[in-house]
Automatic annotation (TrEMBL):
Domain of life of the native organism: Bacteria
Organism: Svornostia abyssi
Residue ranges annotated for the Mandelate racemase/muconate lactonizing enzyme C-terminal domain, each copy included: 137-229
PROSITE patterns, per database record: MR_MLE_2
Membrane-spanning intervals of the chain: none
Matches recorded under Pfam families: MR_MLE_C, MR_MLE_N
The protein's name in its UniProt record: Mandelate racemase/muconate lactonizing enzyme C-terminal domain-containing protein
PANTHER family: O-SUCCINYLBENZOATE SYNTHASE, O-SUCCINYLBENZOATE SYNTHASE-RELATED
Record has Isomerase as a keyword: yes
Keyword set, alphabetical order: Isomerase, Metal-binding
Family the entry assigns: Belongs to the mandelate racemase/muconate lactonizing enzyme family.
Amino acid sequence: MELHVTERALRFRRPVVMAYGTLEERRLFEVELVADDQVTGRGEAAPLEPYDGVSLERVAAALELYRPILAGGDDLTGGELLDACATADPLPQALAAIDLALWDRAGRRTGERVAALLTDAPAEEVPVNATVTALDTDAAAAACAAAAEAGYRCVKLKVGVGDDVARVAAAREALGPEPELRLDANGAWTVSEAIPVIGELASYGLELVEEPVHGIEQLRAVRERVAVRIAMDETTSEPGAIASQATDAVCLKLTRCGGISGLLAAASLVRAHGAVAYIASTFDGPIGIAGALHAAAALGDLPACGLGTLALFDEDAGAFGVVDGAVLLPDAPGLC
């Protein structure tokens, strides 16, 4: 199979402020796998260096190592090809692109949606959260009010930046009592900071706090001393983190898991250890969002997932637009 790689840049409608910096655009790679039968599979590699420490250049180097493997792999199954690529370079962000393209190609060849290849009865829609990153209290409140009016049943507010107490109070007032309010600190706090802050914010009816601190033991220490559910995100990259039982929930990312195959395996491990799994994007592009939606539809019965993020870009979200707090599973063969 021939591998084609194209770099793409997606501009945010407005800068996105995170605990690790401000994002104005999202650069990623779109890949295509073309075999002799001319059935094309499309994938996406979306590293986010401030978040995962992986550069586009690092991913490009891994994809180049995969090129001869894919070119000489006509007699191998998709799983064998992916294993061979992982042996050459186990970089999850690069493997995700190949995994997505192989699943997309399998769906197009069979005329089936990818989710239907993963399970007999996939969900037809995936509940998603709205994401609010505004630093200004009034702007955060306005964004939460708009999300509630649009039918979102869960809003994720970025914290660890600005006056968190005032913003959370304003967010809850704007949302009213019903929508869930999820906080994401991206590891901005220390244990000694997180415990009193979460204790103060708990009165606003929080669904959970995602990655208040970094590290397995640090997360466990916070979880043991607050009355709010704690979720793991960035810490999942640490060895043994998913099976550590350090948190009540685990946020899984397609890019960090190496694609759909790795994400489903990670979700099974999370559930086996008594925690709740849900899926979010690292501001992925349309192909990455499609892959995550198919994985979420196959898993079923998930909390709100962070897969409505295409609305943050200048481009039209198209088939992945959010309606009443959910995104419909694409009905075309393959990923989308």
